[in-house]
Amino acid sequence: MPTYTALQEADTNVYNALMGEMKRQKEGVELIPSENYVSPAVMETMGTVFNNKYSEGYPGKRYYGGQEYTDCVESIAIERATKLFRCEHANVQPHAGAPANVALYFALLEPGDTVMGMDLSHGGHLTHGHPVTYITKIFNFVRYKMKNVETGEIDYDAMREVALKEKPKIILAGFSAYPRELDYARMQAIATEVGAYTVADMAHIAGMIAGGALRNPFDDGFDIITTTTHKSLRGPRGGMILSRELELGRKIDKSVFPGFQGGPIMQMVAAKAVAFGEALKPEFKDYAHQIIKNAKAMAQHFMENGARLITNGTDNHMMLLDCVTSWNITGQEAETLFDRIGVTLNKNMIADDPRKPMDPSGIRFGTPAITTRGMKEDDMVTLANFMLQAVEKRTDDAAIEKLHEEVKAFCLQFPVPGIPS
Ligand SMILES: Cc1ncc(COP(=O)(O)O)c(C=O)c1O
């Protein structure tokens, strides 16, 4: 384990903040579905001298010299990513998920072209066309939605009608707040009919796809996958664009660099290589399946105790709970309450939420991080019970404080990788 002695000597303020964050991560429950704990090997790689190197370009085609080792790690990352997701091309340089999506749009589209993505009120991500993002000044975004919020079924007939009318150049699968699987084959059929590219933004579920616990959109003919590498895939913070065929990959390379970014963050590229190596191991398959088993167990327990989950359950790692209907509190009130007992999650809009984005009706939570800590189905019931008790005793400060102590004692049984216990 690193000792951080150089940091302690050089900068007490940052050192103290780091120690505080380590304690917070160790003593609390991380239920934000986009977060995870990386392995000590990934963590170590992020803090290496690869940081010191400029490597604009791609392996074998760089602008500056001295690239034998950067070429080596980037090539390893690419080779492992293509193996993991069964595709011909990977660009591992996007700094994060949002830049990956923007670079992708510019690779495939002309200004004014149309993208069809999941309605943002039904789970789509900001980069899928939220009006606050600059990309909506350049491209036109149209939507598809769930047909039935109780089952989560997407309205594929309406999707086809909109596609036939609007002629999108991209049909985009993917979400940050949707607990079900998409029918990629059906989306691919619609895209083929209207001549659109198919893109899956798999940021949230990349780990489960890599581990074979969820379907790989490439198996249904999708052209592109974009993803973050730091969520369920359990790598460093970063992004990646995968192409089923080499030719599209070349367009994407040009768009990422020089079209959009400068030098790659090479210590992150190296850490991506390490994380992909871990994801190729058989243990990662177990991890990916356990994430979903845990989410299903937790969802079931909440529903048995009267909570309303959007779509009545989950197929992936994520749950969306309607706090107003279930407990007569807002999403913000629930987030604050759970914070007080050491359970971190986020307030979130639920489908067709009558409330505002900053004060929504629901919360969103998930299991990738706690599964990394080794928690299993029984532990999901324990955790859900802590949360249900907090709701019940929310006006009793002493009871909430006692619950916080119990959560802490429970968490300390499950070490966080890379943090001394
Ligand atoms: C589906 C999806 N795409 C893209 C992103 C953006 O990723 P980043 O925050 O790394 O830019 C997210 C992040 O939450 C996401 O959920």
Write the layout of secondary structure elements.
Blueprint: H1 5-10, H2 12-27, E1 29-30, H3 40-46, E2 57-58, E3 61-62, H4 68-85, E4 89-91, H5 97-108, E5 114-118, E6 140-144, E7 146-148, E8 153-154, H6 156-166, E9 170-174, H7 184-194, E10 197-201, H8 206-210, E11 224-228, E12 239-243, H9 246-260, H10 266-279, H11 282-304, E13 308-309, E14 318-322, H12 323-327, H13 331-340, E15 343-344, E16 346-348, E17 362-366, H14 368-372, H15 377-392, H16 397-411
Parallel strand pairs: 1-15, 5-6, 5-9, 9-10, 10-11
Antiparallel strand pairs: 2-3, 4-12, 7-8, 11-12, 13-14, 14-17, 16-17
Helix pairs in contact: 3-10, 4-10, 5-9, 6-7, 11-15, 15-16
Bound molecules: pyridoxal-5'-phosphate (PLP).
Pyridoxal-5'-phosphate (PLP) binds near residues 127 and 175.
What does this protein structure show overall?
- With 421 residues, the protein is α/β, with parallel strands linked by helices.
- It folds into two domains: 44-279, Type I PLP-dependent aspartate aminotransferase-like (Major domain) (Aspartate Aminotransferase, domain 2, 3-Layer(aba) Sandwich); 284-411, Aspartate Aminotransferase, domain 1.
- It is 45% helix and 14% strand.
- The chain has 16 helices and 17 strands.
- The strands form five sheets. It has a seven-stranded mixed sheet, with helices on both faces. A four-stranded antiparallel sheet has the order 13-14-17-16. A two-stranded parallel ribbon has the order 1-15.
- The longest helix is centred in the last third of the chain and has 23 residues, at 282-304.
- The radius of gyration is 22 Å and the shape is globular.
- The mean pLDDT is 97.
- It binds pyridoxal-5'-phosphate (PLP).
